[in-house]
Amino acid sequence: MTLEKLKSWEGLLLIILILTILANATLAPQFLTLQNQINLFQLSIEKIIVALAMTLIIINAEIDLSVASIMGLAACTFGVLVENGTPAGFAILFCILLGALAGAFNALWIAYFHIPSLVVTLAMLIMYRGIARVLLEDRGINGFPQWFGDLGQKAFFGPFPLGLFIFFLFLIVLGVVLHRTGFGREVFVIGTNAEVARFSGVRVSRVKTILFVVSGAVSALAGLLYAGRLASVRGDAAAGFELDIITMVLLGGVSVFGGRGTIIGVLFSILIVLNLRNGMALMNITGHIQTAVIGLLLIISVLGPNLAERVRFSGRVKTTI
Amino acid sequence: MIKFFREFHPHTLRIIALAIVLMLTILFFASQIDGYFSPRMLNRIATSVAVILPIAIGQAMVVISRNIDLSVGSIVGISAYLIGDYLGTHPDIHPVIVVGMALALGSLCGAINGALVAYGRVPSIIVTLGTLALFRTYLVEYSGARSITTSGLPEWLVDLPQRTIFSIGSFDMRLTVAMSLVAAIVFWVALSRLRVARKLYAVGSNPDAAIIAGINSSLVVFVSFVLSGMLAGLAGFMFLAKFGNITVVAGLGFELKSVAAVVVGGVNIFGGSGSIIGVVIGTVLVDTIDNSLTRWAIVSEFWREALLGMLIMIAVATDTFMARSFGRMKGKTK
């Protein structure tokens, strides 16, 4: 890696990541064990899977606030279906389709009626969560088949659980799609300037629709993993996850205004967040402080480079916004 | 008909569209719920709107300047808890000073957001996502798992929600509702009449042009965040008065609620346009839907959120389409 590359966002994240890992390894001896490394992923596996899909949406200059509600909706629908005797395999398929449908419904308003995604997915955050509550009211369901719970909790191949395979599969597939295909270029072009993209013959509405449908389906899958991992569902399953997910994506250097970002950056940011949380947990630091540290890191990671740049350019006349 | 619409500015038409949606919503619930037009229902909605309205006004100003403030819920929590806690040990403080403290506390939180956004040049969604977590964590750590109870509060504060200024029939104008309305009127007049407020719209509609026109856009953005924090502080005081019992989760989720009220109220989420009248109608609309659904016999309480989400979507879509077709009508007649 050349010095130039280290100055990039990803280089900065890599340095933070290495520092975090070094600090953790020094302070907590059990940190570097394989089991702890797997646990570290497993505890947030649903969020990091959804973060990958969210990366494409934010690069596209949109946002999807409804992901956590779709996770909850899929988990609750699965619970109700299984409770009523539907074979679990069929229920899984149905729930993923339901997630895709929810994503398509978002896309209908965003891509075809041109209502801002922040508004649409905010309303849908409330509505999908509401449907989940209608399904379960104030009950919890936990009578899942043994194999379903095992998929969420136990090792699937070697010592690794299924969620980890899904995460790395998506990481590779979405990374290739985003950085090596024409579709990926279209995602960036639309994110940079949707109007220009439209006049250049990019089918903007279609790209947006695909992204939101994928985001919905991936969220549903993540919701099912969540149900399997906890072996139970409730109406508030996964509530509030959207903020954590968006934090991971933005920390990864994806511009909130679209058009800029990489999957590698998001991977680094996910690893930083997971390692920080894990390290703090090993040192008995509570969940709330963990959240605050990550919030602080998010702000500093953008503020730091901004200030450094300003110091460097302070002698020149500059018009920035 | 077309001639009639031509008389109005498109923004005025938008407000009219929104008011029609609100009226239709009220008429719908009136046809479904017995005794809907009772003063009790009006009181219930009014006191509920009183808490959320200041937050929505602050949020509107931030959104008009092309930013967003996701930390308002945490600021409401901090203000409600800290003021309640302080009153527990200093019960003799004058009420006006208490309100002043709530405003100052909120402004301080808002100033932190504003400084980072305006002078640190960090996108507002990133800053306020961060401070959403930071402010809440501060509160959790400060509280040490204690909660504020009504018994620790001075009597005037506990009685405040029942304080009535005047009554029309059996509708009581509560003091908290009046405070909220005064805040709305002050900001409505300021935003529509003061020259300095036009800078907010200028920065929001085109930041480059605003700077070239000699507007100190950093200062404008900073002030909008301070005001948003201040109003969230005020809402925190109202929250404390209304509920009395405050835990560390006070105000959780208000950020999304206020954004919903603002966008339903016709403020452009990409900045540059929006009016306080619209925000007031939007807030009332969202809260009316929320409060009426709990009274609607046909649906169980578990349907509330699902229908609320759907109705917000319908309200936004209707408002958008009506405003667009009004705009087109206006265009044709020119």
Q: What topology emerges from the helices and strands here?
A:
The complex is a heterodimer of chains A (321) and B (334).
Chain A: H1 3-6, H2 9-27, H3 34-42, H4 45-59, H5 67-83, H6 88-112, H7 117-136, E1 140-141, H8 146-153, E2 155-157, E3 160-161, H9 162-180, H10 182-192, H11 194-199, H12 204-230, E4 233-234, H13 241-251, H14 263-282, H15 287-312
Antiparallel strand pairs in A: 1-4, 2-3
Chain B: H1 2-6, H2 10-32, H3 39-64, H4 72-89, H5 95-119, H6 124-143, H7 155-159, E1 164-168, E2 171-174, H8 175-193, H9 195-205, H10 207-212, H11 217-243, H12 254-264, H13 276-293, H14 304-333
Antiparallel strand pairs in B: 1-2
Mind explaining what this structure looks like?
The complex is a heterodimer of chains A (321) and B (334). Chain A is an all-alpha fold. Chain A has a domain at 41-261. Helices cover 74% and strands 3% of the residues of chain A. Chain A is built from 15 helices and four strands. A two-stranded antiparallel ribbon of chain A has the order 1-4. In chain A, helix 4 packs antiparallel against helix 14. In chain A, 47% of the residues are buried. Mean pLDDT of chain A is 89; it is low at 317-321. By secondary structure, chain B is mainly alpha-helical. Chain B has a single domain, classed as ABC transporter involved in vitamin B12 uptake, BtuC, CATH 1.10.3470. Helices cover 73% and strands 3% of the residues of chain B. Chain B is built from 14 helices and two strands; from the N terminus they run H-H-H-H-H-H-H-E-E-H-H-H-H-H-H-H. Chain B has helices at residues 2-6, 10-32, 39-64, 72-89, 95-119, 124-143, 155-159, 175-193, 195-205, 207-212, 217-243, 254-264, 276-293, 304-333, and strands at 164-168, 171-174. Chain B has a two-stranded antiparallel ribbon with strand order 1-2. Chains A and B meet through helix 7, helix 13 and helix 15 of A and helix 6, helix 10, helix 12 and helix 14 of B.
